[in-house]
Amino acid sequence: MGITQWDQDDQGMFDGCLAVDRAAWQADDPDGPPRSARMLRTLLTGMAVGDTETWCATDGTQVRGWYRLHLPSRENLDTGILELVVDPGERRLGLGTELLRHAASRAAERDRSRLLGEPLQSGGAAEFAKAVGARAGLPEARRFLHVAAIPSGRIAGLRASATSAATGYSVLCWTGVVPDGHLDGVAYVREAMNDAPSEPENEYVRWDARRVREQLNPRIEAFGYRLYTVAAVHDETGQMAALTHLSVDPEFPEWGFQQMTAVVRPHRGHRLGLLVKSAMLEWLATAEPGLRTIFTGNADTNQHMIAINEQLGYEQVHPGWQAQTLDVAAFLSR
């Protein structure tokens, strides 16, 4: 078995990575959303600030497993973010450990002292993380919203209630990349995510209009999903106060992927989180008629956002994810 660096021009290598990814999905999380071919290719190639490298374990021309290592270049410069996937038929034979050792060596060469991943809390990935000495961190609960099961009038009623509490705020919406006129506002709200529960080692992430334009917008275009954004704006100051994103991948239009929702601290207490999320669901009812299930995740300590999701009808599914941190030097010395 050899480990070869990803070649984005090698269609056979990509097809092999996709086949492994789909087989792992069927084995580990068949009730969860699949990953589209375009999204996987974009992830393997790299579309974030910093370097991304992908390596494949091959038996002849057959891909048996792969890993993607992302090396942030602005914050968390001691960290490598790792996703490692092994074909179910090749597990418990040492291939995962071989790939992990390769990834840890690559991380060490780039002066990264820890590898961070977020596998499911139970099953093979969790057992593997424990076996290699990773430290379990923050658990994150998953919830699904089954659109057809939402009682008639529930979303309209919740939006009306939130609107009443949010006097002095207006809702605005757009699709796709962030328009130039909203770059500063989106950067301001995205910084509010630094208040969300996370691993204690993670550094504060700074956002400005340039970073939104140069990092966020290209990712939206590269992934090729339909991105919907709803924001709340403070009428008196014009300041963006809350924001939620939700994406739909054209390859699997029955699934919606709830992305970030944030309310900036000076504007909390006006039910703006519920306002933008209920407005989003009303919009999607007409914009995405094929939508069947919306998928979200929250740290299980984020009780405020969990309460909003449960009001909307989201139900927890098991297992969730859990952050896992591996000390690179300690692992390589084993």
Give the SSE map:
Elements (H helix, E strand, L loop, with lengths): L1 E4 L5 H18 L8 H9 L5 E9 L2 E10 L7 E8 L8 H15 L4 E4 L6 H8 L3 E12 L7 H12 L3 E7 L7 H8 L18 H15 L2 E9 L5 E9 L6 E9 L8 H16 L5 E7 L3 H10 L2 E13 H5 L2
Parallel strand pairs: 4-5, 10-11
Antiparallel strand pairs: 1-2, 2-3, 3-4, 5-12, 6-11, 6-12, 7-8, 8-9, 9-10
Helix pairs in contact: 5-8, 6-7, 8-9
Describe the fold and architecture.
- This protein has 334 residues and is of the alpha+beta class.
- The chain folds into two domains: 2-140 and 322-332, Aminopeptidase (3-Layer(aba) Sandwich); 151-312, 3-Layer(aba) Sandwich (Aminopeptidase).
- The chain is 35% helix and 30% strand.
- The protein has ten helices and twelve strands.
- The chain has helices at residues 11-28, 37-45, 95-109, 124-131, 154-165, 183-190, 209-223, 272-287, 303-312, 328-332, and strands at 2-5, 51-59, 62-71, 79-86, 114-117, 135-146, 169-175, 226-234, 240-248, 255-263, 293-299, 315-327.
- Strands 1-2-3-4-5-12-6-11-10-9-8-7 form a twelve-stranded mixed beta sheet, with helices on both faces.
- β10, α8 (272-287) and β11 form a beta-alpha-beta unit.
- α5 (154-165) packs antiparallel against α8 (272-287) and α8 packs parallel to α9.
- The radius of gyration is 21 Å and the shape is globular.
- The chain starts with a strand and ends with a helix.
